[in-house]
Design goal:
The protein has 25 helices and 19 strands. With 622 residues, the chain is an alpha/beta fold. The protein starts with 22 loop residues before the first helix and ends with a helix.
């Protein structure tokens, strides 16, 4: 496809030179560009296809980089990147060394704020508005938040404070009926009523049409009515929640009509207060497969455009698949088992559990804090909840895990999916902090399986354990090796995989696979390490590990977590405390945010690949 209009946009604000008659053509070209590029690199598709016209209207309204646009979550900012002069970056989108799939301030001054987790945009925008007012500036500030993100409590904290603002702030509510999976809860129902309540909009349009026909005074009457229409709106729109909170509400309007969005933005900008513009969009618009199955096309690997099928059709059993099967099996055996998701039942493998045990499944929306304390309440009443959330999103519920679960030693299981290096989503999504924050909590048991079999066994153990337990496992294929190592899971006990000499490898979770690979590479050097599968990072099996620490001259710890607060740091402190003089070689990630890229490239860069580990051990031995 020849991008006749899109090719004229190469710098920020170039869209202002496009004739309005070409807007529809530009939107079509952007969608074609997105589908073509994302089909090659992978990325977030459906959400970006749904926000094309909205982003165009925002770029026509705002002046970049002076004005500030904050995207909630940020994975729907692809059109923003295109319109701010970054088309060329899409050839290496989310690849190692390439352009991020999220807003990045270091990438462009047009990215005002970095976001990767939901429900943050209004707070950030309100802070920017306060800073603008203190400085006497006049920047326009706009936050875009999805309807799914409004299930996060932080959004309401921000809305509560936004009502006190005495200067302009525009909040765009992008209502596409979904987060990643279908939205749930009161806000979803509330917005649904607004969306489907055509009475107000139809009456408004009819009255305007009649009044405008009145000679000489018709248009003036319409303008006056628009300035005093609150009572009329309250007759037709249930609740008027946002107006009752002190915000001015405009909408709902067609999120695929550039002119209508522009008009709303211009109207909103004239008010010295916070204004919420409710736009209704279609997730996946313009690509039929994504329109029909938006959840399947939220985040995609490279695919064939014609069929929508992924280019890599080899289906490997993932750790999430193993967790899914184990939950179904245990759900049949244990009636006290319940499952809780925070708006990601599909990603965490809980859809089959939901279908088979609908009365014992709860999706609380994008509300990880609530999910944890909700689970604590159920546990206090005799149930055994499993809260399945990605590692990066459990960070949002730190206080609830510590305060509401651990203090009371409640039997809540935390299924920590996507632990370790996640890859292409980058800094905001890498699960490299969970061992540090879970293992510092009193009463918490922290486990990491070496393979798929061990994940199932750890889940069974956790259901019998009368206290909080976290089981962390990585994204991707479940390791199917070491199936002859099947020692039962015992509280706080490690497992010896291989006996060797001189070099001791203490490996956490999926790093056991790397330890085995590295050991094979070291044979040529006459090095035969002892390999221990740690299993428990809290409590650490010092009683059984200490003899190995004393009898080996080199101790190597291996984890895909940051060193600070992690397993390796604890072992290092123990060696010093006990006066053990063995050399110490920790393999861990540095205490920094890890950029996006494919996992093998990241492992190589940060020394977590089997080759890197083997080479590091060779240097120590020599």
């Amino acid at each position: 496809m020849e991008y006749e209009v899109l090719n004229r946009i190469n710098h920020p604000n170039d869209i202002k030179e496009i004739d309005p008659s070409e807007y529809k053509k530009l939107a079509k070209e952007i969608r074609h560009f997105l589908v073509t590029k994302i089909s090659r690199t992978g990325g977030h598709l459906a959400s970006n296809l749904g926000t094309v016209e909205l982003t165009m209207a925002l770029h026509l309204f705002l002046d970049f980089p002076e004005d500030k646009l904050i995207w909630d979550v940020g994975h729907q900012s692809y059109t923003h990147k295109i319109l701010s002069g970054r088309k060329e970056g899409f050839d290496h989108l989310r690849q190692f060394g390439g352009m991020s799939g999220f807003p990045k301030r270091k990438e462009s001054p047009c990215d005002a704020f970095e976001t990767g987790h939901s429900s943050t945009s209004i707070s950030a925008a309100l802070g920017m508005a306060a800073a603008r007012d203190l400085s006497g500036g006049n920047e326009k500030i706009v936050a875009v938040i999805g309807d799914g993100a409004l299930s996060g409590g932080m959004a309401y904290e921000a809305l509560n404070n936004a009502a006190r603002l005495k200067s302009n702030l525009i909040i765009i509510l992008n209502d596409n009926h979904m987060s990643i999976s279908e939205n749930v809860g009161g806000m979803a129902n509330y917005l649904g009523r607004i969306r489907t309540n055509t009475g107000y909009q139809n009456l408004k349009d009819d009255v305007e049409e009649v009044l405008r026909k009145v000679p000489h005074v018709g248009n003036a009457i319409v303008k006056k009515i628009k300035r005093s229409k609150d009572s009329l709106k309250r007759l037709f729109i249930p609740g008027m929640l946002f107006e009752d909170m002190g915000l001015t509400y405009l909408g709902p309007i067609d999120g695929h009509n550039v002119k209508e969005i522009q008009n709303a933005l211009e109207s909103a900008s004239k008010l010295r207060k916070a204004v919420l513009i409710h736009v209704v969009t279609e997730k996946g618009r313009g690509y039929k497969k994504a329109e029909e199955h938006p959840s399947d096309y939220h985040g995609v690997d490279p695919f064939y455009v014609a069929t929508g099928q992924p280019k890599n059709l080899i289906k490997e059993t993932s750790y999430t698949d193993v967790f899914q099967a184990a939950m179904l099996s245990l759900g049949s055996e244990k009636q006290e088992l319940v499952a809780i998701s925070a708006a990601m039942p599909s990603g965490t493998g809980l859809i089959p559990f939901k279908e088979r045990f609908p009365q014992r499944f709860y999706d609380v929306g994008i509300a990880e804090q609530h999910a944890v304390t909700f689970a604590a309440g159920m546990a206090a009443m005799g149930y055994h909840p499993v809260v399945a959330v990605y590692s990066t999103f459990f960070q949002r519920a730190f206080d609830q895990i510590l305060h509401d679960v651990c203090i009371q030693k409640l039997p809540v299981i935390f299924a920590v999916d996507r632990a370790g290096l996640v890859g292409k989503d980058g800094e905001t999504h890498q699960g490299v902090f969970d061992l540090s924050y879970f293992s510092m909590m009193p009463n918490m048991a922290v486990m990491a399986p070496k393979n798929g079999w061990e994940l199932k066994e750890m889940l069974k153990f956790a259901l019998d354990y009368q206290g909080p337990a976290a089981i962390r496992y990585p994204r991707g294929k479940a390791y199917d090796g070491l199936m002859d190592c099947v020692a039962p899971i015992e509280y706080g006990r490690s497992e010896v995989i291989r006996n060797g000499a001189n070099v001791l490898m203490l490996a956490v979770g999926n790093m056991v696979e790397k330890a085995v690979e590295a050991a094979e590479k070291l044979k040529a050097d006459g090095i035969y390490p002892t390999i221990v599968n740690v299993r428990f990072v809290k409590p650490i099996d010092y009683e059984h590990v200490k003899p190995f620490l004393l009898s080996h001259s080199l101790v190597v710890t291996m984890e895909d977590n940051i060193y600070d607060g992690g397993f390796g740091e604890q072992i290092g402190a123990y060696l010093e405390k006990e006066g053990i003089t063995s050399e110490f070689c920790p393999i861990a990630l540095p205490c920094q945010f890890i950029e996006h890229g494919d996992i093998p490239s990241l492992e190589k860069k940060y020394g977590l690949s089997a080759d890197s580990i083997a080479e590091k051990i060779r240097r120590f031995v020599k």
